[in-house]
Structures are given as structure tokens and as C-alpha cells.
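REQUEST ID: PR-0412
SUBMITTED BY: lab tech R.K.
PRIORITY: routine
TASK: structure prediction, single protein chain
INPUT:
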Amino acid sequence: MPVFRSRLQGELLAIVLLAPDNEQSLTDLAQRLGAALSTVQREVSRLEQAGVLRSRYVGNVRLVSAETSSPAYAPLRDLAERYFGVPAVLAEEFATVTDIDELFVFGSWAARLLGHAGPTPADIDVLAIGSPDRDDAYAAALRVERRVGRPVNVTVRSLSSWTAGKDGFVQDVRRGALVPVPVSTNGD
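STATUS: complete
OUTPUT:
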């Protein structure tokens, strides 16, 4: 996305803006981003000068959070969600998992993505429809966890079970918030 200076900046904004109630240390941000601490420090300083982020110190630890009163907060949050948020990360990490016909975020995370009010969910529930290798699906979920900093629970259902809709779990998921995640067909 050319709006952001770099992929690092986009991912940094996604981490901070999409969890506005959380304060994160520069060290934690650098580890999650796989970037040098000095690089993250410079990006945070730039974004703080722009009024998008704020920092406070506890001893010598710099804690960073979103500046939610900024007029830029909501539009930047939306862009960060669209291009670097959970659906984008899921699409990237599950792209290598074959035999997924459909992929969804469901539950409280999906509800927040759809604009329903509530606290930031503690975890992300993902539904993979098809016949993927479960080890591959769980490995993809672990990669997502590392990138977004939240537990990811992946549930696999066959296409026939999803289509029939007789399973109690499937019925509950269909009644709740459900956000499709674009995936390539069969890992292509």
C-alpha cells in the first residue's frame, strides 16, 4: 500500500492501532516485527510527531499506544486493518495450505471487524472449510499468532458439513459474525 512509508510502518501501525487499549514496549514491537530496535524507535518517533501514536515511560521502558483522539486515528486504523490486519495476515499465511475451499474469521474478532462494539478480543477464531492437512493449518495459525500477537484457534470443517449446515457448531457460526478471508484455491 503506497500510503505507508514501508511495510514495516504498515505492520507497526496495524499492531498498535488495532489494539488501542494496549501499551507495547519498543522491544516487544521490534521482536514482533522482526526489526532492529533502532528502526522501530525511529518509526515510532515519526508517528508520534505526526500525532498518530503516543509514548510514555515507565523507568527506562518506552511504552507505545495509539493516539485515539487524533483525527487520523480512524482512517489510518481502517487502512492498517485492510492491508496489514488479521484478514490480510490470515490470507498470506494460509495461502500455502492446500485444499481450503473457504476461510473465515468468526466470533468476537469477526464482530469487531464488522463494526460491533466491544473490547478487543483475546483470541482469533478461524474456520477452514475443506480438507486441508490439519498440521499445515495449525502451522499457519501459529505463524499468524506470531505476527498478530494473539492466539489463533483454527477449526476445520469439511465442505459437505458446511454446506449441509446440520452440525451444531456450523449453525452457531452461521448465526454469528462471519468474515470471509480470500484464499487461493487449493494453495494455487
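NOTES: Residues 81 and 183 are 17 Å apart (CA to CA).
REVIEWED BY: pending
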